[in-house]
Design a protein that fits this description.
Layout: H1 3-6, H2 23-40, H3 44-50, H4 56-64, H5 81-94, H6 96-116, H7 119-131, E1 136-139, E2 155-159, E3 162-173, E4 180-187, E5 190-197, E6 203-207, E7 219-229, H8 242-276, E8 278-279, E9 282-283, H9 288-316, H10 322-346, H11 358-368, H12 375-387
Parallel strand pairs: 1-4
Antiparallel strand pairs: 2-3, 3-7, 4-5, 6-7, 8-9
Helix pairs in contact: 2-5, 5-6, 5-8, 5-9, 6-7, 6-8, 8-9, 8-10, 8-11, 9-10, 10-11, 10-12
The structure holds 3-thiaglutaryl-CoA (TGC) and flavin-adenine dinucleotide.
3-thiaglutaryl-CoA binds next to helix 6, helix 8 and helix 12.
């Protein structure tokens, strides 16, 4: 008998993907998993129901070291892209809103400053954002410019050495709790980015209510009414739409991993439930129909994790193309939605309550499939790369 015939697959790591991770990656993964299990899972159903997320969580996430963890210097951990991805997976296994807080802080606000900011801006903002002492947001989307940010109307014009910023941003994660907003605006010199501190005269926010998705996350409108900013509020290195779009690559990469975290949580909940729920005198786990669903869910979780890991290894090697990130986001968010919807059915009526994580994840994923580029946008990015024909316009 060969050793291989004695090997058995484990339900929670069916394809032994852990064996592809280094000890350091596993250690980081386990620390984040423990944090989520202790600090997020017991409370997040209530946060979701109440439509809140505690502000102090940012400082706790800072202490955990996940805010801007893939950036170098300025108080950031300088971890690998793969380690960052594993952290996103574990955070989103808790809730997409928690992963969003980390994505928006690290991959959007901090990355924008790190990549496109001046040395003074980096020194001033990055250490406090990495610690979670300050919160950042990223204002690109507008009421009439979501998938097509190039249609933005927010404008910035020079007035002496100052800038005057006027316009409106919509659907901005962390908007009303942010200490600094990274705001993108059209100028005579192309699309430019500005750092707008909370409390700047003319800058106000309004939260978006009645959300049925991503409720454990603050989503706001930013109103910029002739906001006067000094010259040093401008991110000097970003001079076109490439500036904000480069930040989106980073956040989308985190979602490639994160979505599979949500899927894993749904799968594990359905697996547990199927073994406990007795119907017609036996556990539903012993029925062929439910086993087929469980096998399908396990397959998607494993396949999605392998895809994320592959993209992570490419990113760490400096060989990850934006269109590959698009394929990853499209595939893994679609897979996660399918898993969540299947898991919800396995739980029967219990599947519609917040006593179980499944419908919360399912509803959250409806935001995840829309933000950071809708599934349609990513299909068109992949389609354009495959055919050479850009089909947006
Ligand atoms: P296009 O003409 O293709 O490009 C304009 C300039 O940008 C460059 N570029 C990129 N650079 C880096 N990374 C990318 N992924 C890039 N895509 C394009 C391009 O080379 C060009 O550079 P240059 O130097 O020649 O000027 O732009 P387009 O207007 O045709 O738009 C392309 C499209 C549709 C793919 C893009 O606009 C897009 O991605 N739309 C979706 C918008 C979106 O995803 N918004 C997300 C907002 S943030 C958010 O949702 C946060 S959710 C919270 C969370 O993350 O948890
Ligand atoms: P639209 O662009 O109006 O699209 C509507 C529909 O048309 C979609 O189905 C889309 O796929 C489809 N469509 C668009 N173009 C085409 C085309 N060419 N061909 C075929 N179909 C097309 N934005 C930020 O800037 N910062 C944030 O922090 C942020 N956080 C968010 C948090 C949440 C909870 C949500 C829901 C959104 C957030 N967003 C944020 C906004 C998000 O990025 C946008 O909602 C997203 O980019 C889509 O834009 P839209 O909603 O305007 O949809």
């Amino acid at each position: 008998m060969t050793a291989a015939t004695e090997v058995k697959a484990r339900p929670t790591d069916f394809l032994a993907i852990d064996s592809l991770l280094s000890d350091e990656e596993l250690a980081i993964r386990d620390v984040v998993r423990a944090f989520v299990s202790d600090r997020v899972v017991p409370h997040v159903g209530d946060w979701f129901e109440q439509g809140t997320i505690p502000r102090e969580l940012a400082a706790e996430l800072g202490k955990l070291g996940v805010l801007g963890m893939h950036l170098d210097g300025y108080g950031c951990a300088g971890a690998s892209a793969t380690a960052y991805g594993l952290a996103c997976l574990e955070l989103e296994a808790g809730d997409s809103g928690v992963r969003s807080l980390v994505s928006v802080q690290g991959s959007l606000a901090m990355f924008a400053i790190h990549r496109w900011g001046s040395e003074e801006q980096k020194q001033h903002w990055l250490p406090q954002l990495a610690a979670g002492d300050a919160i950042g947001c990223f204002g690109l989307t507008e009421p009439d410019a979501g998938s097509d940010p190039g249609a933005m109307r927010t404008r910035a014009r020079r007035d002496g050495s100052d800038w005057i910023l006027h316009g409106q941003k919509m659907w901005i994660t962390n908007g009303s709790v942010a200490d600094v907003a990274v705001v993108w605006a059209r100028t005579d010199e192309g699309v430019r980015g500005f750092l707008v501190p909370r409390g700047t005269r003319g800058f106000t926010t309004q939260d978006i209510h009645k959300k049925l998705s991503l409720r454990a996350s603050v989503t706001s409108e930013l109103l910029l009414d002739d906001v006067r900013l000094p010259a040093d509020a401008l991110l000097p290195q970003a001079t076109s739409l490439r500036g904000p779009l480069s930040c989106l690559n980073e956040a989308r990469y985190g979602i490639v991993w994160g979505a599979i975290g949500a899927a894993r949580a749904c799968f594990e909940s359905a697996l547990r439930y199927s073994q406990e729920r007795i119907v017609f005198g036996k556990p539903i786990a012993a029925t062929q129909l439910q086993q087929a669903k469980l096998a399908e869910m396990a397959m998607e979780v494993n396949r999605g994790t392998l895809l994320a890991l592959h993209l992570g290894r490419l990113k760490d090697a400096g060989r990850l193309a934006p269109e590959q990130v698009s394929m990853g986001k499209l595939a893994n968010v679609n897979a996660a939605l399918a898993v969540a919807r299947t898991a919800r059915q396995v739980l029967g009526a219990n599947g519609i309550t917040l006593e179980y994580p499944v419908i919360r994840h399912m509803n959250n994923l409806e935001s995840v499939v829309t933000y950071e580029g809708t599934a349609d946008v990513h299909a068109l990015v992949v389609g354009g790369a495959l055919t050479g024909h850009q089909a947006f316009r």
